[in-house]
Amino acid sequence: xxxxxxxxxxxxxxxxxxxxxxxxxxxxxxxxxxxxxxxxxxxxxxxxxxxxxxxxxxxxxxxxxxxxxxxxxxxxxxxxxxxxxxxxxxxxxxxxxxxxxxxxxxxxxxxxxxxxxxxxxxxxxxxxxxxxxxxxxxxxxxxxxxxxxxxxxxxxxxxxxxxxxxxxxxxxxxxxxxxxxxxxxxxx
Length: 188
Hints:
By secondary structure, this protein is mainly α. It has 8 helices and no strands.
């Protein structure tokens, strides 16, 4: 089922407000509606799948506790959620620099490589491929796609920031995504 943007936003607002009333079914729906995009934000910042998964789990714990503070009409529901994900991922990333490291003498026995190592290597290759294809886009297309998909800004919000019509933003993103798909399909 495809929904237009106002219907999707309304559904998200409804799920978020109900989550604020500790409605577990609404929380499950909120997760289903947003987890892929919020994971993308976490992965972009953390740069490691396992770290992004851990951060995403923390993000949803925060959302569960803070959903009652969300005020419809003040901000876009996805922007509110994306800000939580972004901030938590940045906190995680910053904390990496403060973690003490042990001397090599104190390091435990090395862990044997496993299937996850191969999966991570493949994910890294896919990420490099995606970044290479993104670099081939025009700057306006690349910036519009990154802002809309990674920062969760709506087309209308992006149009306001850039001072251009919403239709222009939609066209840039649509054409950029078409070029991105072609590039990714060419590299397969």
